[in-house]
Design a protein that fits this description.
Number of helices: 5
Radius of gyration: 33 Å
Largest sheet: 3 strands, antiparallel
Structural class: mainly alpha
Shape: elongated
Strand content: 5-15%
Distance between the termini: 98 Å
Length: about 170
Amino acid sequence: MNEAKVIDLTEETKVEETPKKETKNIDKKIIYLIIVVLIIVTIGLYFLLKKEEGKNETQSDRAINYVEKLGKDFYEDYYYEQIETIHQNDESTDIKSFLTNFEENGISVTLNKVIELHFKTKEAIDKELSKYDCNYDETKFIIFPKDPYEKNSYKIEAHLSCKNLKVNEK
């Protein structure tokens, strides 16, 4: 009496497929979690390195960088635009020939002149420089226009006259 035993394989197959799908979902979740953690770590490192970068800068460097940036903004956003406006209104005025006059000696602008022209407020400048007790009549930047005498073709020198500026202190 040989009885044949019938085995229903469809149920066993279903049982085996379910764990595979769950494993795939768990693997995807782990991969997403790893990606999120890596992004957070990368962002954290970026801000940490950015913060450390500023610590290596001396007081003198910070003040000079501020005055140079102020000079850059003043020249590009105010002075050069004034020259362009004059040129548009009077085409006989050539920007290049005008700026050539300042190539050697430069255009000297004190902090008080920046305030007087309403380019920056005294409060805005004080926020950056008051701790150094700078003389705003003597602290200045000098802009040296360079060929081809365009908005971005110049060199800037910062000249500081500050009582509380320690050159080697960080």
